[in-house]
Structure formats: structure tokens, C-alpha cells
Amino acid sequence: MSPDYQEYDDFTDAIENQSIFQARHIHKLAKLASPPPCLLLHIDLKHVVHTLGYRAATKEDKKEINKRTDIPTSNRKRLKPEICNLMTSSYLKNPFFSRFKEILINTIDIDYIRNSHQFKARRKEMGKKGAKTELFRYRRSALAKQAHNAIYNSWERNIYLLKPEKIFHTFVSDPGDLLMNNQCICKEWSQKAGLI
Q1: Cβ(174)–Cβ(188) under 8 Å?
Q2: β-sheet bridge partners, residue 160
Q3: How many CB atoms lie within 10 A of CB 32?
Q4: Could you say which of 28, 31, 120, 161 would form a disulfide bridge with 92 (CB–CB 3.0 to 4.6 Å)?
Q5: pTM for the full model?
């Protein structure tokens, strides 16, 4: 069976379909005697800073986190680079990652404006309303942008902990082309993917 690259919420479905794992699956993956030799792990940075950094942390890091913030982290705490660093580094130091000979990182760079539009579209699609309509559930876009920057910057500062073999950055340019490390890998990707 070949991987289908669809993201499943349920860990068992992801295993059965040889699909993309989510950051929260790290505990179940770590318990496997033989995890897949090659896997794709989607790490949602907001969730790492919100709670997953604590859940994946060593006992020592959990003590430090408990001294400095509540779990889940509050909107106010997610604005602080030192809290974002602590949560991100705690997640990335999980011993599970040391089981792999090579780690490749592909960061999907999404600027604040595009990320915010996607968030609002998802809320609208799900029929959600309410005051917390900005990205990361802030009431004001300035705070949401500050949190977005703090979270992304903490990722960039801490990915060295994985000792990656290679680091890639993928993003969609304004005309809709898909670029990896500033090289176009698909012209008019947004249109082909049905995003515009």
C-alpha cells in the first residue's frame, strides 16, 4: 500500500493508511516498538506552544514550564518569545526524535495575513462566530500578528535541536507559485490546487 498523504485525526487511521502524523501523535509513535522507518509529521506550531510542548516535555522541562506558565498557555503568555521558546524546545527535545538517523525539516512559511485569511475561512466554513475572530483567537489583529511572529521565530531558533540533515522552506508567492528555498517548484500552484 502506498501512502495517501491525507492527514487523519485518529492515530490508528494514520498508521493503517501510512499517512501524515500529527504533532499530538508523538506519544503513541514513541510507544511503538518499531515506528515507521520513514514518516511525515505535521507539527502545528500553535498547538506546540499551546499545550503539546508540555505534553512532550521531559520531567525536568515540565518543572520549568510549570514555574513559568499555565497549561494550556494563555493568549497573553503566547506573546512572550521566552514562553514560545520554552514550549517549542521542550517538544523538540522529546527522545522520540533521536530514534531517526536523518531528519529533514520543511517549514511551510505562511505570513500572518495569509494565515489569518485561512483561519477566518475555516471558521466561516464551520459556521463559527464570536469575538475571537483573529488568528490564534485574539480579538485584535495586532496581538495575533505578534503571537504569529513569536511562534514562528521560536521554531526557527530551536529546530537545531533535531540536528536536521536538511532544512527546507516552502511558501506560496503572491502570484501563486509554489517555491522551496526560493526555487519555483510549481508555477501557478494556487490555481492548480483550487485555492484561487
Answers
A1: no
A2: none
A3: 12
A4: 161
A5: 0.86
